[in-house]
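Reopening: structure tokens for the adenine complex, inputs below.
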Amino acid sequence: MTEPPAPLHFSLLTLFPELLRPFTQEALLGRAVAAGLLKFDLHDLREHAGNRWRKVDDSPYGGGAGMVIRVDVVERALAALPVRPDEIILLTPAGTRFDQKMAEELAEKSHLALLCGRYEGFDARVEGLVTREVSVGDYVMMGGEAAAACIVEAVARLRRGVIGDEQSWRDDSYSSGLLDYPEYTRPAVWQGQGVPEVLQGGNHAAIVRWRRDRALERTLSRRPDLLPAAGLTPHDSAALLELGVDAGHLAALGAPPPPQVKAKRRTRRPEEPMQTPSVAVLTDKVPADRKVPAERAPTDSGEQ
Ligand code: ADE
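Re-run output (same inputs, fresh job):
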């Protein structure tokens, strides 16, 4: 019998613990806490203000708008944690951009402290108290709580048992290096839009290939910057060529050459149709006589 993994412990330091509390108690996070897979504790920075007004900020040296959270308040809040976390992460729009790779790295740790700011941010000297400064994107929010929530979501789901099915995160957008392929469920036809036929047949290899091609198509149109690091295969190169990428672009992506097709040397007679492309059209209509498998009993995946 393998030992259950030790819980991943998050310490959340914030001026608004009540903003984050329900987030740590509901849905899959709440379940993972109950199952002993995750542990959260919330810390109110005001408890460490050091004055009876619970004032944690002051005006910036050099003038300017807004207030700055004092470094000594943060120091006391961190010193009050019963154990030193493996990582102390300051949430700031001026930080290193959070991504899936960082989420995977953080999911290997045992204890993460997330320090959420408000107002104009923290005194710059907090840099010496934290292990990294992280931004969740190139936009400025009113505080770090939503950013901390993003990090908790992205990291927690990578821990064994938190979302149940390991395959479901391996295939996800980013984990595979590509954006996720489109998914469909019932009804098979909705407002005239069908479900691609390949997904309704039982050809597993064709489904795998179709999904990979659609993931490539989405990534090409929405996030082409991801393609060079996506570990493209010769088959992917063939799919990208069919999607209109030219050979020069393919080489620039570092993609391998497409597989050599051993074509039978036979010329097409003029009345023969052209070979249908292997890339299926998303709006494929479902043939009226198509048998759709019986409705499944509703399941609760725990997610919206
Ligand atoms: N606080 C405000 N905006 C933020 C961002 N984009 N990332 C992290 N923390 C923040």
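The chain has two domains: 8-166, 174-183+201-257. The chain is about 30% helix and 15% strand. Marking as resolved unless the reporter disagrees.
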